[in-house]
Specification:
The chain is of the alpha/beta class. Helices cover 33% and strands 26% of the residues. It is built from ten helices and 14 strands. The chain is globular. The protein binds ribose-5-phosphate. Ribose-5-phosphate is lined by residues 169-170, 172-173, 200, 202, 220-228.
Length: 315
């Protein structure tokens, strides 16, 4: 067994970190992050962590590179302050979409991030709904993936699902959309989505399944520019869907996502708080519902500390 459990937060998502520690019934660890005029980051851990079992929460949101570097520096500081074990808790994993070599002369940057975390001194990783589950294989240390599916499932189970169908935005989302549909006991359909270049423009060209007269629930791992969701909603409406709701784990909401989603004719957009959603964004998207992941992460941290199963929790 490891020593005392301590939880620290980087500066990316303090609200979620506070929610997690409140759920766990413990205070957040004290640290100070300073940015010098030359943009160098200094992290000072302001309490003793010798032989402690330390968890560091840092999500990936703008400024993405700063937050990643801050996390690496924080882990390094904890390691040299003699923490017994350091778990990097990454609600949204940085560079998760750079997970394969699908073009010549590109970096598999998610693997590089895994290497950097290990080099900094992370002994374990805890993350949620990876773009591709095989990212877990980039680590030579233990890595656990939580899924937001139970949180989304519990929310949608409070709705009338008598005429509903889950829709995967593409073949990549189909496997987890299938689990989601099974938990909701509804049929599923899959959109044939194409991307033609790096412009982040997606096109929904066909649908496998039936949505005519149905209440569609689009499932995806993340919303970046909102293009995939808008395209999915377009084809679903064209094919006769009665309502279009969305359940997505990570609200990246980059570029012109707010405008795009506002023009997508959605009945509801349900996301988690793996990434902070600003009050201005929430106000601009009146059909947005943000679900908390604090209890999920808090319970997972307690289980890791106690050497108990995470998969049991997912079941
Ligand atoms: C891509 O394969 C992912 O699963 C999402 O569909 C994608 O990240 C969404 O991106 P965007 O919102 O820019 O269409």
């Amino acid at each position: 067994m490891f020593g005392e459990m301590k939880v620290f937060s980087g500066s990316s998502h303090p609200d979620l970190a506070r929610g997690i520690t409140t759920h766990m019934g413990m205070p957040l660890g004290r640290l100070k992050v300073t940015r010098f005029s030359n943009e160098n980051i200094k992290v000072k851990v302001e309490e003793n962590v010798r032989e402690a079992d330390v968890f560091v929460i840092q999500s990936s949101c703008p400024p993405v590179s700063d937050h990643l570097l801050e996390l690496l520096i924080l882990i390094d500081a904890l390691k040299f302050a003699s923490a017994a074990r350091i778990t990097a808790v990454l609600p949204y994993f940085p560079y998760a979409r750079s997970d394969k070599k699908d073009e010549a002369r590109i970096s598999i940057t998610a693997r590089l991030v895994a290497d950097l975390l290990e080099t900094a001194g992370a002994d374990r990783v805890l993350t949620m709904t990876l773009h591709a589950p095989q990212i877990l294989g980039f680590f030579r240390k233990p890595a656990d993936q939580l899924l937001a599916t139970p949180i989304l499932t519990n929310y949608f189970l409070t709705k009338d699902l008598s005429n509903a169908a889950v829709v995967a935005t593409d073949a990549g989302a189909a496997k987890f959309a299938g689990h989601f549909a099974k938990r909701l006991s509804v049929p599923m359909a899959i959109i044939d989505k194409r991307r033609f270049d790096d412009s982040e423009q997606a096109q929904s060209v066909a649908l496998i399944g039936d949505v005519e007269g149905k209440d569609a629930i689009i499932y995806d791992d993340e919303i970046a520019t909102g293009g995939s969701i808008k395209e999915a909603a377009r084809i679903l409406r064209e094919l006769g869907a009665r309502t279009v709701r969305v359940g997505v784990t990570h609200p990246v909401l980059s570029g012109r996502a707010v405008e795009t989603l506002n023009s997508a004719n959605l009945d509801e957009l349900v996301v988690t708080d793996s990434i902070p959603v600003s009050p201005a964004t929430a106000k601009a998207l009146p059909f947005l519902k943000v679900l908390s992941t604090a209890a999920l992460f808090g319970d997972a941290i307690l289980r890791i500390h106690g050497g108990r199963s995470i998969s049991e929790m997912m079941d």
